[in-house]
Specification:
The protein is an alpha/beta fold and about 450 residues long. It contains ten helices and 19 strands. Helix content is about 25%, strand content about 25%. The strands form three sheets. Strands 1, 2, 3, 4, 5, 6, 7, 8, 9 and 10 form a ten-stranded mixed beta sheet that branches. Strands 14-13-17-18-19 form a five-stranded antiparallel beta sheet, covered by helices on one side. It is globular, with a radius of gyration of 23 Å.
């Protein structure tokens, strides 16, 4: 049995949970052109030639990974998807136990494919579709095993042209993130405490928004180019982590530059792909995490990610085999499978707390909603949203009237509002959610205590 208080490697596996996806040969060559400026007829013959490197002018190792069969084969049906996820939970979770005898943990960062004008990859479109699917999966898995998987948030921001196979950079252009979260609060009594950015994209504006609501972010795709593949577009045009540390762990970002350490409250952890054309985990990176713990005497976070739109089982085997290999050289350094929340708590030595409680009142004559919490939330105020009788959803700011008290002044006809929603996290990642039926004076509450 591992002794207490021995520094650990905290292993976090985040899955960008996007459901099923189709990609025909035309779409594959469109991606090749977008990423490598190679314009060829979209044929299977040309794809094979590129894979074999016959055209030496255009061939490089990054392209080879980009168009490998692994990277261009997707799960296209819900039956195949369900079979893969349930097989993972049943037959792969306990292949390699951690140093405490516990099974593997997946953190399912769920996407709502909302706000896009096109859907060329035939994704599962709409609010809650993938979220509800994974609630079903986790409930089925829990019937047979005690599991500690969590559902958290993954978001692709719609670009200016609304293309469904691209992601936008400017969160000021539209606010579908507010619409998605407002619906999660009111429809499902759920709110995230951990974020995974679509295509690893962050900017200072995104960082400012996250700092108001979500304490933990697994996003920094930093890598030393001497030891890992980068991408041809690594010039900051999309994701940009060039200035971020390549050491394992997490940091509070700067207000001036989200890539470097500063004084924001939220935390960003470094994370690498398990098997991608670039930024992939390898023996060197895993050994770095174990060596870092040994040299510093402090816990660190080793975080990896992949997608459920591809078969995750070979990637799982690759990763745990690397852990098992590296662990042989560090027999005295334990490793622990963690949720994204638990890893941050252990890394920062955060105390355990009970989730925040809401108290809500509506003064009908003055048309004011009063909100109070029993202790301060992570941000400056709870997240407040409304659902109208016409099934529209809006996010609005609150007015602070005390240390733990806020108000919302309804300066329109209150009959237009069906319900209000409230959500917040605390500094340790616990989540509290509340739905208040305005005209029935009825409250529904939920909390997620990631102990």
């Amino acid at each position: 049995m591992v002794k207490k208080n021995i520094p650990e490697v905290l292993i976090v596996h985040c899955v960008d949970t996007e459901g099923v996806m189709h990609e025909n040969i035309d779409a594959t060559f469109e991606r090749i052109k977008d990423n490598y400026d190679i314009d060829l007829l979209p044929t299977q013959e040309n794809l094979i030639k590129l894979r074999e490197g016959i055209n030496n002018k255009t061939y490089d190792s990054s392209l080879a990974k980009f168009i490998s069969p692994v990277q261009t084969t997707f799960i296209k049906t819900l039956d195949s998807h369900r079979s893969m996820i349930l097989d993972l939970s049943k037959n792969y979770r306990f292949k390699l136990l951690d140093s405490y005898g516990a099974g593997y943990i997946w953190n399912w960062h769920v996407l709502d494919f909302v706000g896009f004008k096109t859907n060329p990859r035939h994704r599962l479109f709409g609010n809650h579709v993938i979220f509800d699917l994974f609630l079903e999966y986790l409930n089925k898995s829990n019937n047979k095993h005690e599991i500690h998987d969590t559902i958290q948030w993954h978001y692709h921001h719609p670009p200016i042209d609304g293309s469904g196979h691209k992601s936008g950079l400017n969160w000021y252009y539209n606010n579908y993130y507010d619409y998605i979260l407002s619906r999660k609060i009111i429809d499902r009594l759920w709110f995230p405490s951990v974020f995974r950015p679509g295509e690893h994209i962050e900017r200072n504006s995104i960082s400012f928004w996250l700092n108001q609501w979500i304490p933990f972010d697994y996003a920094s795709r930093s890598i030393d180019p001497k030891y890992g593949y980068t991408q041809v577009d690594d010039d900051g045009r999309r994701h940009d982590w060039r200035e971020a540390s390549t050491e394992w762990g997490a940091y509070n970002p700067s207000f001036e530059n989200y890539q470097i350490k500063g004084t924001m409250k939220r935390s960003i952890a470094r994370i690498l792909d398990i098997n991608s054309r670039a930024y992939s985990i390898c023996e060197f990176e895993i050994e770095k995490a174990f060596r870092q713990v040994k040299d510093t005497g402090m816990d660190t976070i080793l975080a990896v990610m992949n997608h459920d739109i591809r078969d995750m089982r070979p990637e799982h085997d690759k990763f745990i085999n690397l852990i098992e290999l590296v662990k042989q050289s560090y027999p005295d350094i334990p490793f622990r499978y963690c949720s994204g929340v638990e890893a941050m708590r252990r890394f920062y030595k955060l105390p355990k707390k009970d989730p925040i409680e809401f108290h809500v009142e509506f003064n009908r004559s003055k048309k004011i909603v009063f909100i109070e919490t029993n202790y301060k939330p992570f941000g400056e105020q709870p997240y407040y949203c409304m659902k109208t009788v016409n099934e529209e959803y809006f996010h609005e700011p609150l007015f602070k009237i005390g240390e733990k008290k806020w108000a919302y002044y309804i300066n329109f006809n209150p009959q237009w509002v069906e319900s209000i929603g409230l959500a917040c996290n605390d500094d340790t990642g616990n989540t509290s959610v509340c739905k208040f039926l305005l005209h029935k004076n009825k409250t529904f509450s939920n909390s997620y205590n990631y102990s």
